[in-house]
Amino acid sequence: MKTEVKPDIANFHPDKPQGCTNLKLRQLMRRVAQHYDVELAKTGLKTTQYSLLSHVVKLGPIRAVDLAGVMRMSTSTLSRNLQPLAAMGVIEILPGADARSRLISATEAGQHKRTEAQRKWRIAQEGINQTLGAQRVLALHALIDESLELLSPADGENDDV
Fold it and tell me: What range(s) does the HTH marR-type domain occupy (predicted)?
């Protein structure tokens, strides 16, 4: 005998959010990330590596602490994420103004890799736009931006990626 699962109608309120927001966002993020990862994998980069390389190309040479601030991540997370890119030869980590600071810049190979990956990223983005519809994507971006502002950490703390 099959047991039928019935919704808890007594506790259902159409104006009250149901379920776990964290779970729903993680499910959406995984689905979106998979879409981008399929395209970017064709370049040998992960989505996170493409993002980091793009920031270095655009802002570099840049101090690690400044890059971490722009990307809203801790310097230790940034350091871990830079290592594979340095091993690929797409970025360089050079000495900075003093013994404790480092400057990060893209190599010529990194510039080319970013251009290649940017084309794949654009294909992925256009696919999302087509699948969800431009209006839904615009609304999603606005909602995310507003939510990020409302949930910003106090005292300029960095988010960890």
Answer: 38-137
Distance from C-alpha of 68 to C-alpha of 137, rounded to nearest angstrom:
27
Report CA-CA distances (Å) from 5 to 1, 19, 60, 115.
13, 16, 56, 51
- Determine if the peptide bond prior to 153 is cis (ω within 30°): no
Q: Which of 48, 38, 66, 49 is nearest to 125 (CA)?
A: 38
Domain 38-117 has CATH 1.25.40.10: no
Query: Please, what is the Cα angle at 136 between 132 and 140, to 5 degrees?
Result: 110
Report the candidate in 124, 123, 122, 121 with the shortest Cα–Cα distance to residue 31: 124
The answer for residues whose C-beta is within 8 angstroms of residue 29's C-beta and 6 or more apart is: none
**What's the mean pLDDT in 80-89?**
96
